[in-house]
Design brief:
mainly alpha
Length: about 180
């Protein structure tokens, strides 16, 4: 995976070679190089590593998705802000299985950076509300659930939001006493 600035320099260099090929009357080579430059520019806006991690996550392969995401060494340097938001979103979902504090950090960063789709942002806020419920922060959880409901315009998360609200009404999780 290349740094985002290297991708842009590479695209400009390929485009310059394409123009040179056009001036030499090698039209086919020029068109092919323009297509390659377009592919490089596409990877600038849609990171290939994040797309592969989404596919792994869709197959419920959390370890594989985490392994793929760990290939990104410096998210701030290698990704544009929206991609960094999705990187943090995916890391938050993956780490929520094992470490709630780290997951909360990743998900808050994802919400701060922003996500392209409102449904993804609603899911991140729903995850944060679940973490807030487990940490007995009722006011914050209610606020996050209201924001998630507002962002869920297609109603895909309606059942999960209602379930979280029911959990919130039950009150804090009681510890079992052992005698």
């Amino acid at each position: 995976m290349f740094n985002k600035n290297i991708k842009l320099v590479l695209a400009v260099a390929i485009l310059a070679v394409a123009v040179w090929q056009f001036t030499e009357n090698n039209i086919g080579n020029g068109i092919f190089l323009i297509l390659i430059a377009a592919l490089v520019v596409l990877t600038y806006f849609k990171n290939e590593v994040i797309i592969m991690a989404f596919f792994k996550l869709r197959k419920q392969d959390m370890e594989g998705a985490d392994r793929i995401l760990n290939k990104i060494k410096d998210p701030a340097g290698a990704l544009v802000p929206k991609q960094e938001g999705y990187y943090n979103y995916l890391k938050g979902i993956i780490t929520s299985q094992t470490n709630l504090n780290a997951a909360e950090k990743y998900l808050r960063r994802a919400v701060e950076l922003g996500l392209n789709m409102p449904e993804d942002l609603a899911m991140a806020k729903l995850q944060l509300a679940g973490i807030a419920i487990t940490k007995n922060r009722k006011v914050e959880a209610e606020k996050l659930l209201a924001e998630a409901k507002k962002l869920d315009s297609k109603g895909m998360l309606k059942d999960q939001i209602n379930m979280m609200k029911a959990n919130l009404k039950r009150g804090p999780v009681q510890q079992m006493r052992r005698y």
